[in-house]
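2 proteins. here.
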Amino acid sequence: MEPHLRESLGYVAGCMTTAAFVPQAWRVWRTRSTRDISLSTFAIFCPGVALWLVYGYSLGSSPIVITNGVTLVLALTILVNKLRYG
């Protein structure tokens, strides 16, 4: 696969998986309800995304760095609100 196509694929995939967190983060922010969100899932997921971010940085991969950076912010928003509102 040509490099520009591979990078485009990375951006599309990253944007799609990142966008999946937007509705949940928005709902948590709007309702302040986290009753049905698993604390353990987000406690494991956030460090995992942070490691993907470091990995992407070590490769010099903008798609991995940018999309995982945004995903980390969204996931941390959900985690912090889970801890705050239980």
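next one coming up
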Amino acid sequence: MKLHITRNQAKGLLGNVKFELNSKVELTDEEEKLIKKYNTNQETLFVGKVNILGIELNVRITIDNLVKGHTFKCSNIAEIVRYEAIVRDSCGTFKNYLEVMKDFGGEDVFEY
């Protein structure tokens, strides 16, 4: 899996700067087959709140969001940085899902 992130900025209507983060995951053929096999497109990887212009919005990132691509826009660079961290963490969770799906079955032994 590869995560592609593009950061853009543009001037808003009032001359202020707007920020945009585009994210999309590129999968291998094997990873695509695992998602289809286990029907995990709508699996939620992150649920939480993101503050945009002082308004808290509920955010839900699914496997489908990452695979099809997702755009986040706001006027605060700190929120773009925070959202990028959320996307990257979601990809880590996604990678764990893929590892479990790939090796599903059998037994794992964990020593503590």
